[in-house]
Amino acid sequence: MRAQFVLSEIGVGLRRNLTMTFAVVVSVALSLALFGGSLLMSDQVTTMKGYWYDKVNVSIFLCNKSDAESDPNCAKGAVTDDQKKSIVSDLGKMSVVQKVVFESQDEAYKHYKEQFGDSPLASSLTPDQMQESYRIKLKDPEKYQVIATAFDGRDGVQSVQDQKGILDNLFGLLNGMNWAARAVMALMLVVALMLIVNTVRVSAFSRRRETGIMRLVGASGFYIQAPFIMEAAVAGLIGGTVACGFLVVGRYFIIDHGLDLSHKLNLINFIGWDAVLTKLPLILATSLLMPALAAFFALRKYLKV
């Protein structure tokens, strides 16, 4: 097979169907950009889970005098020193517990003023209205239920709260957005494949005379198909390159510069450039193989070779 002939046929085919080729490039670029974006979103959620789950605490809030009057869980009165000692002793025996920190009413009041000092309610609160609590760091954040089962409803305990539950709602939202992006990506991939098949068939129809002559002189099926397959592959590769550009530019302007989220949202541990760069070869390989395979299977029936 002469490489020069194949390359010339690729150029002819791309020029003859310039509009459809452009549509293929755009659809492939958008679908693969969404594909790469969904992969990066999954990495981001995983990174954030590892970062935040490592920092979450389980809090055991103790009954105070105000709770004894209004909360059914504290009907037996405010927590006693003996109850505190019992809680600390039982926490020390649990293998899932890594660290326990006691927060007094004064410390709780101070933290509340720091976080909600502008709230109208803050001016009416006094330290004796705040709850004492134990902040528990677990070796495995997934083992929250062990603490809840052991202390929820216990004398002197008003409630057991897990910060992980709040984060789960956030990660559930992010995962939902990620699946929505994947659904759009799948739709765009279907559109891209349909465009590729139609482009290849139009190209084959416009050159049916040449392919007929090639059959008559004994050209092999692959020799006839090769220019059409490579046309689709080249168009797809261009789209894949554009998709890679979208991801790189998006990471640069959204996180590092432009929106500069890495500094504005410094509580979020964003994925690094290594996560982006490792996705680019996969996108390029997909952009090359997907159109080539689509063209190959479309031509097998159409050219009857």
What features would you describe in this structure?
- The protein is an alpha+beta fold and 305 residues long.
- Helix content is 70%, strand content 8%.
- The protein has helices at residues 3-16, 18-53, 65-70, 81-92, 105-116, 144-151, 163-206, 208-216, 221-256, 261-264, 273-304, and strands spanning 58-62, 97-103, 133-138, 157-162.
- It has a 4-stranded antiparallel sheet with strand order 2-3-1-4.
- It is rod-shaped and about 100 Å long.
- It starts with a helix and ends with a helix.
Short description:
The protein has 305 residues and is of the alpha+beta class. The chain is built from eleven helices and four strands; from the N terminus they run ααβααβαβαβααααα.
Which percent band covers the strand fraction? Answer: 5-15%
Counted beta strands? 4
Residues in helix, %:
55-70%
- Counting H and I runs of at least 4 residues, what is the number of helices? 11
What is the average of the pLDDT values?
77
Contiguous uncertain segments of 5+ residues: none
Strand order of the largest sheet: 2-3-1-4
Computed over alpha carbons, the radius of gyration is 31 Å
H/E element sequence: HHEHHEHEHEHHHHH
* Main sheet specs: 4 strands, antiparallel
